[in-house]
Amino acid sequence: MNDTHSSPIAELRDVTKVYRQGALEVHALRGLNLSIERAEFSAVCGPSGSGKTTALNIMGALDKPTSGEVLLEGTDLAKLSRRVLSHLRRDRIGFVFQAYNLMPVLTAFENAEIVLSLQGVVPEERRERVMGLLADVGLEGLEDRRPDELSGGQQQRVAIARAIAGNPAIVLADEPTANVDSENAEHLLDIMEALNRDRGVTFLFSTHDPRVMERARRVVRIVDGKVESDDRRA
After folding, report:
1. For the segment 138-152, what is each residue's pLDDT rounded down to a tens digit?
2. How wide is the angle at C-alpha 123 spanned by C-alphas 144 and 203, nearest 5°?
3. Which of the two residues, 179 and 65, has the higher pLDDT score?
4. Distance (Å, rounded) from C-alpha 110 to C-alpha 87?
5. pTM of this structure
6. Quick one: three-class SS letters along the chain?
C-alpha cells in the first residue's frame, strides 16, 4: 500500500453502480466522486435510495462498481485478487453496521478480538489491546458478556472496538446510531469523536441522523447517486 500522508486514504473516482433486476436497471450511483483524507470525521447523508450506503459498500470493497475507480491508500482495488481484497478488508478497513453484526456465541472480548486473531497477533498483545479498547469505549468489566447480555448501545460499542482493533486506515460506519436511543447515540458519538481526536482514527458515516451530521466536520450530501453538496467545517 502507498501509505502517504499527502494522498487521500480513500477515493471514488467517477463511480457508477447499476443494479439489474430482470429487465429493470436501477442506477444507484451516477459518476460519484468522493475523496476522504486522513483523520477526517465525515458523514455522507441523503434521502433513502440516494446511494449513500452503496458508496460506503464500494469504498469498503464489499461491492464492486459498474464503472469508475476505487482507491484505498493509492491502490486501485480493481487490480487486486479476491484473496488480497479479503486481506485488505481485514487489515485496512473497519466496519460498523447498523445491526451490530456481532457473533452471538462470543463474548464482548472475543468479538473485539476477532480481527487481531485473524491477523496473527500473539495472545498477550491481543489481550492488552482489546482490554484497552473496551475500556476506551466504556465496557470495562463487561468483557465476558455475550451480545444478548448487553444493551443495544453496549453492543454497538463492542462493534466500534472491533472495527478499530486492527488499526485500520479508515472506519466505515453505516447508520451506527439507528438502533439505539438518543442518550446512547450521543455516547457513541462521544466515543467515536474521542477516538478520532486522540487516536487519529478516520471515520466516514452513512447517516440520516441529525446528531451525526451536527458532529461531523464534513457533510457530503448525495442525491440520485451524485454529490449535491460538500460542506466542510472548521
Report:
1. 999 999 999 999 999
2. 70
3. 65
4. 20
5. 0.91
6. CCCCCCCCCEEEEEEEEEEEECCEEEEEEEEEEEEECCCCEEEEECCCCCCHHHHHHHHCCCCCCCEEEEEECCEEHHHCCHHHHHHHHHHHEEEECCCCCCCCCCCHHHHHHHHHHHCCCCHHHHHHHHHHHHHHCCCCCCCCCCHHHCCHHHHHHHHHHHHHHCCCCEEEEECCCCCCCHHHHHHHHHHHHHHHHHHCCCEEEECCCHHHHHHCCEEEEEECCEEEEEEECC
